[in-house]
Design goal:
9-stranded mixed sheet, Spore Coat Polysaccharide Biosynthesis Protein SpsA, Chain A, 44% helix, 2 domains, 17% strand, alpha/beta
C-alpha cells in the first residue's frame, strides 16, 4: 500500500473538536521511522470542517500528510468505509473527533499489528475525560459512552459473551474490513435525531465471521472527551433506546439461518419477562432513578426491536423499488 499506518477520523460538525485531536497526532512519539498519514472524512458537516482542514493544510509542514475527503452519504458506517477506500496503508486506526490518543498510540498500534498477524481488529483502552464529574449512581451506564477499560492485559474478545468493542480507538487491517464488511451495512450509525447505533458491532461481526480475531490492547490508550450534556437523563435515555432497537439485528447475525425463527420467539418471551420483572422491581423509582429508567428504556426497545427493524427494512425496500421504477420509467420515456 506504500505507507505503514493511517489514522482515519470520521467527523460530523467537529470543527471545534478536531484541533485538539490533530495536536495529539502532531506530537506522537516513536514514529520517526514510520510512514503514516491522517485522513479526515467529513460526513456532510455544516460547521466549516472543510475550511478548517484547508487552513491546516496550508501550513502543514510535517512528513506525514493531512488529507481531507467528503462522504456525502450520511452515517458513520459510510464515513468509515470511505476511509478504508482512501487509506494508503494496510493498518488503519480510527479515532472519533472527540478522542485524544496517548503520545505513543500510533507506535503501540503498529507494533501490535506486526506481532499479531491473525488479528483483524483491536480496541484501545478508552478512559473518560468528563467535562463534569459523573454522578456515582450512573456508573453502570458509562460503558455505553464508549469507555473501554478492561484491565492491563491484552485479550481476545469473545462476541457471544463480551460483545464487540466500539470503533473509537479501534485499529483494523484494511483487507479484513474491505473484503468482508458490506459497503452498505444495515446499521449505518446515528443520523439526525435517531440514536440507532451499533454499526461498529455489525462491522466487527463480519470481520470476526471471516475468521479474523478481535482483541483488546491496553497499551493503546485514548481519552474520550465527554461533555456534560451526555450525562443528562434525556440523552442517556435516547442512547439506551438506540442500543435496544439495534439488538435484534445483532442477535440474528450471530445465529444460523435455521435458528432464527425459533430464536425470535424465545427472545420475545425472554425479553417480555425481563421487562415485566424490571418494572415490578423498580416501578416506584423509575421516574427518579436514572439507571432504572435507562434500563427500562433499553429493555422496552429490545422487545420492540424486531418489529422496528422490520419496518425499516420494508421502508428501505420500498424506497429502492420506487427509485428503480422511477429510473426505468425515465429511460423508457426517452
Amino acid at each position: 500500500m506504500g505507507l505503514d499506518f493511517t489514522v482515519a477520523i470520521p467527523t460530523y460538525n467537529g470543527a471545534n473538536r478536531l484541533p485538539r485531536v490533530l495536536e495529539k497526532l502532531r506530537t506522537q512519539t516513536g514514529v520517526e521511522n514510520l510512514k503514516w498519514e491522517i485522513l479526515i472524512v467529513d460526513n456532510n458537516s455544516t460547521d466549516g470542517v472543510a475550511k478548517l482542514i484547508q487552513e491546516y493544510q496550508l501550513q502543514w509542514y510535517h512528513p506525514f500528510p493531512l488529507k481531507y475527503f467528503l462522504e456525502t452519504q450520511q452515517g458513520a458506517a459510510f464515513a468509515r468505509s470511505k476511509a478504508i477506500q482512501e487509506a494508503k496503508s494496510e493498518i488503519i486506526g480510527f479515532l472519533d473527533d472527540d478522542n485524544l490518543p496517548a503520545p505513543n498510540w500510533i507506535i503501540e498500534a503498529y507494533k501490535f499489528a506486526l506481532n499479531n498477524p491473525q488479528v483483524g481488529a483491536y480496541a484501545s483502552k478508552i478512559s473518560g475525560a468528563f467535562e463534569v464529574e459523573p454522578p456515582g449512581n450512573i456508573k453502570p451506564l458509562l460503558l455505553y459512552l464508549a469507555i473501554t477499560e478492561r484491565g492491563e492485559q491484552p485479550h481476545l474478545y469473545l462476541p457471544f459473551r463480551q460483545g464487540f468493542p466500539p470503533t473509537a480507538g479501534l485499529v483494523v487491517r484494511r483487507q479484513a474490513w474491505k473484503y468482508h464488511v458490506p459497503s452498505s451495512p444495515f446499521l449505518i450509525g446515528r443520523i439526525g435525531s435517531s440514536m440507532l447505533g451499533s454499526e461498529d458491532a455489525e462491522a466487527l461481526f463480519y470481520i470476526q465471521k471471516a475468521g479474523w480475531e478481535i482483541w483488546y490492547n491496553p497499551s493503546m490508550e485514548v481519552e474520550h472527551l465527554i461533555p456534560a450534556w451526555r450525562l443528562e437523563k434525556d440523552y442517556l435515555i435516547s442512547l439506551m433506546r438506540g442500543v435496544g432497537l439495534a439488538r435484534f439485528h445483532l442477535r440474528m447475525l450471530l445465529m444460523k439461518n435455521w435458528q432464527r425463527p425459533l430464536a425470535f420467539f424465545i427472545y420475545l418471551l425472554n425479553d417480555t419477562a425481563k421487562l415485566i420483572l424490571h418494572f415490578i422491581r423498580y416501578y416506584k423509582i423509575i421516574n427518579s432513578d436514572i439507571v432504572a429508567a435507562c434500563e427500562m428504556e433499553r429493555l422496552l426497545a429490545t422487545l420492540v426491536s424486531p418489529f422496528y427493524l422490520w419496518h425499516i427494512k420494508i421502508s428501505r425496500f420500498l424506497k429502492i423499488s420506487s427509485t428503480a421504477s422511477f429510473k426505468q420509467n425515465g429511460i423508457q420515456d426517452r
